[in-house]
Amino acid sequence: MNFSAVITTLPLSSQHLRVYCYVVHDQSVSISGARAHTHREKEHTQRKKEREIFCFMDIHSLLWFRKGLRLHDNPALHKACEGAKYVYPVFVLDPWFLAPDLSAPSPGSSRVGVNRIRFLLQSLKDLDHGLQARGSRLLLLKGDPTSIIPELLKKWNIRRLCFEFDTEPYAQARDNKVKEAALKLGVGVFSPISHTIFDPQETIRKNGGTPPLTYQSFCKLIGKAPVPIGDAPSSIPLPEDFNGAKLVDLPSLNDLGYNNLEQEEYTPFPGGESEALTRLEQSLKDKNWVVEFEKPKGDPTAFIKPATTVLSPYLKFGCLSARLFYTRLKEIYSQSKTYTKPPVSLEGQLLWREFFYTASYGTPNFDRMTGNPICKQIPWKDDDHLLDLWREGRTGFPWIDAAMVQLRKWGWMHHLARHAVACFLTRGDLFVYWEKGRDVFDRLLIDSDWAINNGNWMWLSASSFFYQYHRIYSPLTFGKKYDPQGKFVRHFLPVLKDMPSAYIYEPWTAPLEVQRKARCIIGRDYPKPVVDHSVASKQCMEMMKAAYALDKETEGQPSLEDIDALKKKLQGKQLQTKDATAAGQTKRKNEKESSSSSGRSTKQQRKMTDYK
Ligand SMILES: Cc1cc2nc3c(=O)[nH]c(=O)nc-3n(C[C@H](O)[C@H](O)[C@H](O)COP(=O)(O)OP(=O)(O)OC[C@H]3O[C@@H](n4cnc5c(N)ncnc54)[C@H](O)[C@@H]3O)c2cc1C
C-alpha cells in the first residue's frame, strides 16, 4: 500500500463545495504510470481512480459528528453516504469537556457549564431521532476521540472518514492527529467547510495571505455565498454488527455525574436541529421584522420575547446551517422593496460571525493578549476578587448583576448586555483582564464560540478592532433607558423586586426607610457598588490612554518589561475598589455627572453600538 496526501476539490453534490481530502493510492490503482501526463491530466486521473475506489468497492464510511449536529445541509453526511455500503454515524463523548468539576464556581465541568452540556445532550438526542427516521442511529462512544476514531477505522474497516472542517486551534490539533492516523491506514478523509458560509482560508488567500481586519474590507472580499445542499438522503445504511466496539447509551446529566441540580434554573432554549429549524421559521415569519431589523435598536432587557433571534446556540453546535439561515434571509429581502443592510441587518449579523471566524483563523494567539499581533498590550489587573464579584452578579450595579445572573441561568444574554458587562469588567470600571471575562463567558454561554467570543472580547476591551476607549457604557443609565421600571432586574435579581423604580438601578441611593420597606438593605441583602463608576471610569480611561501611548511609542510592540513598568507606574493610581461605602456615599449629583459624561444620551449610546 502506498499513500500520499493531497488537498483537492472534489465533485460533490454541490459544485460550491471545497473539500479537503487525503486521497488514498492503492498500488493496484496507482497513478504512477501517468508520469507523462501534464499536471492537470494527473489530477484528472487521480480523481477518476479515486471515484473508482469509492464507487466499486463496498465502502464503509465513518461520519464523525462534532459540531454540525444536523441532517440538513450537511455535506460530510452526503459524502459519507455516496455509494456507501454502510455509514457509521459517530459522536465521541469526551470527558475532557463533560466530567463534573466540583471546584467550579457553578455546576458543570471545568470548561463547560451544565446548561451547555444539557443543550448538547438534547441536540444529540434529536440527531439520533433524525437518523432513526432514516433507518440509522447515532453511535455514541466515550473517551478521547484522537484514539477512539483511529481504533474504529480499523475495527469497522472504514475506507472513508467524513467530518466538518473546524477552524478552532483545539479542533485543528485534534483533527490533524486523526487525519494522520487515517492516512496511515489508507483511509480517505473528507472535511468540507459547512460550519461557516464562506471559506476562511479562501478569504485570507484573496486578501494576500492575511485576514482582513475590518468588517468593510471583509465584506468586499467574500463574493457570492454558496447555497445549502438540502436534506440528508432518505435512507442511511447502518450495519447490524459493530465488531465489539464499546457503544454507550446517550447519558443523562445524572449519568454524567451531575447530581443535586434541583435548584438550577435551566435555559429556556432547548438543543437540537428540530428546535433550530422551528426557531428559524418563527424568527423569519414576521417579514417586516426581518427587513427592518437593526441590531443597535434592539432592547437588551427584553427577556420574555428577546429582541433578536436567539439562533446563536444552534449555529454554535451546527444544529442550524448558517448557509440555510443566510439563504432564507436573502429570499425574504428579495421580496421586499427596502430592507436594512449590513452591518446592522440580520444578514449583517451573520457576516459578523464570518468576519470573526476569518480573523481568528488567520491570527496567531487570537485567544490571548501575549503574542497576539492584533491585540493591544494593556496592563490589566489580575484581580480575582473583582472577577468573582462580576461573575457572581455581586458588583452592586443591578443592571450588570442581572445580566450576569441571566448568563448563569440561561446561558445567553442580548448582545448589548454582553457589551455592557464586558465593558464594565475591562476598560469601563474594573480594569480586569479581558481573557478572564472571556473564560467566564466561554464556560457559561450556551452559544460559546471560540472565534466570536474572543473577537468580541477584544473589541469590547478596546484591545482590537475598536479603539474608542473613552466611550464607556454607564452601568447606571444603560439598562434604565430601555426598561425604566426595571422588569429585567426584578426578574433576575428577585432581592430587588420591591425596590421602587426610582432606585432600581441605583438602590444604594434609596433612603434607609425605602430599603426597609422593600425588604432589601443595601450592604446586607444586596451589595453596595464595588466602585464609584464616575471615579473608576475616569481612572480606566487614564490607564487606557497610557497603554495606547506606550503602544504608539513602541510601534505596537511593547516588551513585557515595558508593560510591567507601566503597570507599576499606574499602581499609584489604582482603582478605589475595596471600600464600597465610598461609592455608596457618592452623591446622586456625581452619578448624574457620570451618566452625562460617560453614560451619554440614548441617541449617543445607540451611536456607540452602530457597528452592529
Ligand atoms: C463580549 C461578547 C462575547 C460574545 N460571545 C459570543 C459567543 O461566544 N458566541 C456567539 O455566538 N456570539 C457571541 N457574541 C456575539 C453576539 O452577542 C451573539 O452572537 C448574539 O447576541 C446571539 O444572539 P442571537 O442569536 O439572537 O443574535 P442575532 O442578532 O439574531 O444574530 C444572528 C446571528 O448572527 C451572529 N452574530 C450576531 N452578532 C454577532 C457578533 N457581534 N459577532 C459575531 N456573530 C454575531 C450569531 O451567530 C447570531 O446567532 C458575543 C458578543 C460580545 C459583546
From TrEMBL:
Its cofactor is FAD. Belongs to the DNA photolyase class-1 family. It catalyses: (6-4) photoproduct (in DNA) = 2 pyrimidine residues (in DNA). Its EC number is 4.1.99.13. This is (6-4)DNA photolyase. It holds the Pfam family FAD_binding_7. The record marks W380, W434, W457 as: Electron transfer via tryptophanyl radical. It comes from the Eukaryota. Keywords: FAD, Flavoprotein, Nucleotide-binding. PROSITE patterns: PHR_CRY_ALPHA_BETA (PS51645). One of its GO terms (molecular function) is deoxyribodipyrimidine photo-lyase activity. SUPFAM superfamilies: Cryptochrome/photolyase FAD-binding domain (SSF48173), Cryptochrome/photolyase, N-terminal domain (SSF52425). Residues 59-197 form the Photolyase/cryptochrome alpha/beta domain. Residues 560-612 are annotated as: Disordered. FAD binds at residues 308-312, 349-356, 447-449. One of its GO terms (biological process) is circadian regulation of gene expression. InterPro entries: Crypto/Photolyase_FAD-like_sf, Crypto/Photolyase_N_sf, Cryptochr/Photolyase_FAD-bd, Cryptochrome/DNA_photolyase_1, DNA_photolyase_N, Rossmann-like_a/b/a_fold. GO terms for cellular component: cytoplasm; nucleus. Binds 1 FAD per subunit.
